[in-house]
Design brief:
Order of helices and strands: EHHEEHE
Number of helices: 3
Structural class: alpha+beta
Strand content: 25-35%
Strand order of the largest sheet: 2-3-1-4
Length: 105
Amino acid sequence: MLDWGGHDDAKLLIPAPVLLYMFNVAEMKADERLRRELQADVEEECQKLGPVDSVKVCENHPQGVVLVRLKDRKDGQKCIELMNGRWVFFKQGFSEATFIRFEKK
């Protein structure tokens, strides 16, 4: 794959969903259990679509970012559809989902 640096990249990149506005940093700092609960909740929801490689809560990110890596990249679009507009912890918040690219190991 040709990257922006102008050289061929031998590593395969796969798309992965990024969930935005899943939490705010102040809440994350106030409740030490929130990260684990959010990670477990997102993983449980996404497993409805297929196997999940990992869920990472970026606890200091100002946009409340959660990264999801699914085993099958085709499940990524399904994840976007499942998580878009989702209410989080009974609050008037929602997630927006988009794609980033992860390096495939």
